[in-house]
Amino acid sequence: MAAPEATQPTTLRHAFGNVLSFFILLLIGVLAFSIRLFSVIKYESVIHEFDPYFNYRVTQYLTKNGVYDFWNWFDDRTWYPLGRVIGGTVYPGLTLTAGTLWRILNSLNIPLSVETVCVFTAPIFSAFASWATYLLTKEVKGAGAGLTAAALLAMVPSYISRSVAGSYDNEAVAIFALIFTFYLYIKTLNTGSLFYATLNAIAYFYMVCSWGGYTFIINLIPMHVLLCIVTGRYSPRLYIAYAPLVSILVHKNLFNIMHVYLLQHEG
């Protein structure tokens, strides 16, 4: 009869630890967001540098004309005098993300301009990246290590320089996608869940759409799988974690081949 009484304090302590971790994560997200607003305080809400301003122009065109016109847009003001086919030369993840955020906010009667959404996209996703770092590190080492890793990522200068407000470049959303993809891969390895494997493939596809750094993922994960096979650590969970990524990669290559073919035979 003493077992239930001994279990109750452990359950309460576990529940209290989860609530405390939630509030700490919330504070880390607020820190990650607010620490990147110094450029807005100093220079007002503006887009900084050349590539972020080009991405802002592309997002503005997307919100005004829709996805189809954006995909087929030939911008004669970029790479002058040659021009640039936007749909075939950009990573659309950033612009589609900001455009979707803008539409959601306007549907909720929050009338923010496209420029304002673009300025604050990077700080918002820096908070998401910190939370994704917590999930990844917790899956590997534990909740305490996860909170430490999240706090460090929120304040690391090298990441702040690529995600400050107004720095509207691909890394604004891609760092989050990179970390979240690795988290879902580790989660699938630990659970063997096809649900997490599917989410992992979707997260990887989002990473491919956002930044050329997706090669880090598609190089490291096959190396890990090969090492597991060589060392005799192969398991069905490893197959479940890796197979959906391979299918996404094959379909991506087929999509690229088809897109190049259509561009060559257009008209």
How do you describe this structure in short?
This protein is mainly α and 267 residues long. It has helices spanning 2-34, 38-43, 50-71, 86-89, 93-107, 114-140, 143-155, 157-163, 171-191, 194-210, 214-230, 236-264, and strands at 74-75, 84-85.
Account of the 3D structure:
By secondary structure, the chain is mainly α. The chain has one domain (25-264). Helices cover 79% and strands 1% of the residues. It contains 12 helices and 2 strands, in the order H-H-H-E-E-H-H-H-H-H-H-H-H-H. It has helices spanning 2-34, 38-43, 50-71, 86-89, 93-107, 114-140, 143-155, 157-163, 171-191, 194-210, 214-230, 236-264; strands spanning 74-75, 84-85. Pfam families: STT3.
What is the fold's blueprint, element by element?
Elements: H1 2-34, H2 38-43, H3 50-71, E1 74-75, E2 84-85, H4 86-89, H5 93-107, H6 114-140, H7 143-155, H8 157-163, H9 171-191, H10 194-210, H11 214-230, H12 236-264
Antiparallel strand pairs: 1-2
